[in-house]
Amino acid sequence: MNTEDFVADTGIIRHRHTLADGRDLIYFDDPDSTLPPERAPDLRELDPRPPTARMRQDPLSGEWVSIAAARQNRVFLPPAHLDPLAPSTPENPSEVPSNYDVAVFENKSPSFGPLLSDADAPTGLDDLAAIGLGRIRTSVGRCEVVCFSPATEGSFGSLSVTRARTVIEAWAERTHALSQLPGIEQVFPFENRGEAIGVTLHHPHGQIYSYPYVTPRSQRVIASLDSYGPTLFADILATEQAGDRVILTGEHWTAFVPFAARWPIEVHMLPHRHVPDFAGTTLAERDELAVLYRRLLRGIDAVYATPTPYIAAWHQAPVNTRRDEIRLMLQVTSPRRAEDKLKFLAGSEAAMGAWIGDVTPEQAAATIRAALERSDAADAADSAANAAADAVGEAAQATNLPGKAQS
C-alpha cells in the first residue's frame, strides 16, 4: 500500500460534506478565497445510488471490462443554466450545494464502486490474473468528479495559476486518500476536453478513477521494466532532455513530444526526480506544475485557431507494486491532425493495436513550441493591458480621494 508521507498545503482549506444520497463531497478553497467557511447542505430528494457495476473478463486478453449500464442515464450536454456541476440554485439543484473554488465528489453514475469489496468472489490480483470463460467480478472501486471552477465553460488551461494549484492539491490529496481504501490497486486522475473526445459536459472538470486492478497500460509498462531495468523512466527523461523534442522545462518538470508518439498531438511530462504519484510530490513541485502544466495546455490550444480537444492522463504507479520504478507521468493526446481533420482509430490501430503516425514527433514538437511562443506572447500582452488598466483605475481613485483638488 502507498505508505509515502503526504505533505498537504495548509493554505488550501478543505471542507468535507455529504450529499443527500450519502456520497462524499469535499470543497478545496483557494489560498486567497473570498468564500465563507459555511457550506449549504444538500436538500435534494435523491434516488438510491445504483448498484455497483459488474465486470467481465475477456479470456483472449485477460482484460476486465466493467459493464456500467447506469451510466447510460447521465446528463448529455445540458444548457449552461442546467449545468449539474455548477453551484446549486433554486432553478438548478445541482451536485454541488454551495458556491466553490474547487469541488470533488463521488460520481453519481460510477464505472467502479461504490462497493470496495466483492463478497461473491476471491479478491486480489492473483484471482484477477487467472484466465477463464464467463468470469464475472464486482466492479469495486471509486470514481470521483473534480470540478475545476464554478464557471460553466472552460478547461484546466483557462484557470488562473492559483486555481490550477488548488486543483493539483486536490489531485494529490485524493490520490493519497483513495490509495488507502481497501480493494484499490491504481488511482488515475484525468481530464477529457472537447466534444470530439466524447465530453458530455462543457463545465471545466476532470475525474479520478480508482481501479480494483492494475490497468492494462501499466501492466505493459511493468513488462518493459522487466525487460529494460529499473532506470527506464530516468533514462527516458535524460534522453529526451538531450534531444530536440522538449517543449518546456523547469526546475522540477520537463515536457516533451515522445520519441514514438502515436497521436498527431502528444506530449509527455515527467518530474525530474523519481516520484510514484501526486501524493509523493513536494509543495515546490506542485507550485511549479501549476505554472508549467497550465502553460503547456494553453500552448496546445494555440496550435490552431480554435480550442484543441484532448485527453490529459496522469499515469501513476500502482498502489501496491513497482512504486520504486514507475514514475508519475502526464500524457496529453489529441486526435486533431489538422485545423479541420481528426485522426480516427481505424482498422490497424483499433483492431490490431498497430499504430501509424501522421506526423513526425520532431515536426509535432516544433509546431507545439511555436504555438507555445504565441500563447506566451498573448498572455504577456494581456497581463500588460490588465496592469495598465489597474494603474489607470488606481490613479483615478486617488484623484477622487477626500481632500484632493477636483478639476
UniProtKB/TrEMBL annotation:
Keywords carried by this UniProt record: Carbohydrate metabolism, Galactose metabolism, Metal-binding, Nucleotidyltransferase, Transferase, Zinc
GO biological process, one term: galactose catabolic process via UDP-galactose, Leloir pathway
Compositional bias per record (Basic and acidic residues), positions renumbered to this chain: 39-48
Pathway noted in the entry: Carbohydrate metabolism; galactose metabolism
Ranges for domain Galactose-1-phosphate uridyl transferase C-terminal: 231-371
Domain of life: Bacteria
Keyword Zinc: yes
Residue span(s) of domain Galactose-1-phosphate uridyl transferase N-terminal: 97-214
UniProt similarity note: Belongs to the galactose-1-phosphate uridylyltransferase type 1 family.
Protein name: Galactose-1-phosphate uridylyltransferase
Lineage: Bacteria, Bacillati, Actinomycetota, Actinomycetes, Micrococcales
Gene designation: galT
